[in-house]
Amino acid sequence: MKAIQLNHRCAAEEMHVCEIPIPEVRSGWVLVKIHAAGLNHSEVLLRMFEIENDYIRKPIVPGIECVGEVADPSDCGLAKGDKVIALMGGMGRSFNGSYAEYVLLPATNVFKVEADLDWVSLAAIPETYFTAYGSLTECLLLNESDTLLVRGATSTVGQAAIQLGKALGAKVIAACRKEKDFDRLKAIGADFCCIDDGCLAKSLPAEMRPNKVLELVGPATLQDSLRCVTKPGYVCNTGILGNVFTVEHFDPIKYIPNGVFLTGFFSNFPTQEIIDSLFRLINEQRVKPLYAKVFRLDEIVEAHTLLEKGGAGGKIILKM
């Protein structure tokens, strides 16, 4: 089969298609024929430096998510031809991932789905929409009486959160850095947009104060998010778009205001139950999965260059 393999850190232009054997099926694992795969910034980090760590199995096929059909279910209860998505749990790091025509995955990573979508549209969902949905439902307990602020709204997870937040009935405020993005964000469901000046606790008008915040910028603006919510307020830290990865000298008593609850979403452990719930919402509310660019496997250099530099404006899909 055709695949992309990494042995060591490299530039995007060093990536190329190679031929490797189709994986042999074994008990507890499912062979999936991949039709499309979403690309993620974590795969850029893998290529640029993370691959040098001992916990990365080398050579490795990158890719933490994919969509396709079951080629061989082994003993895992699925049927050949089932439409499935797969994500996380070690894909592209502990074992080969989705930059390939086939992938062998633990059954716990593979989820049967019911969706009347083309493969590219389906590929926009797994990691991005699961992360947004899990953050909104498991962490923020979002409901139709809430006002949700999405901080980092132009990111792929941010855009998905706007769509899903509206589908769940909440009022949605989108915070971003450029006014030129307002129309696009309103078109996908944002009720209001505001410029993220880093001090929303001071600049947000009283009538736009949220009671719940999805924090995708991360520790760089986390304390400001905690201070901008009404009380009781909830803040879920899911992203690190601000490239600040930790809060130094964190003192929870002084850092978290009274009456405000701080949580975080870790997307490494999806379940069939939450995937089913996500797809019910997408199907019932006719949520249209968003993506920006589609590349073939042999266009991996162009795809990863764009992924690394940013500016795609949305999800990048690799189509097999």
SSE layout:
Blueprint: E1 2-4, E2 17-19, E3 29-38, H1 41-48, E4 65-72, E5 83-87, E6 102-106, E7 110-112, H2 119-123, H3 126-139, E8 147-151, H4 156-167, E9 171-176, H5 182-187, E10 192-195, H6 200-203, E11 212-215, H7 222-228, E12 233-237, H8 252-255, E13 260-264, H9 272-284, E14 293-296, H10 300-309, E15 316-319
Helix pairs in contact: 3-4
Sheet bearing the most strands, described?
7 strands, mixed
Can you give the mean pLDDT? 95
Please mark out the parts with pLDDT under 50 across 5 or more consecutive residues, or reply none.
Answer: none
State the helix count. 10
| SS content category | alpha/beta
Helical content band: 25-40%
Strand content: 15-25%
The sequence of SSEs as H and E is EEEHEEEEHHEHEHEHEHEHEHEHE
Radius of gyration: 20 Å
Global outline: globular
How far apart are the first and last residues' alpha carbons, in Å? 11 Å
Number of strands: 15
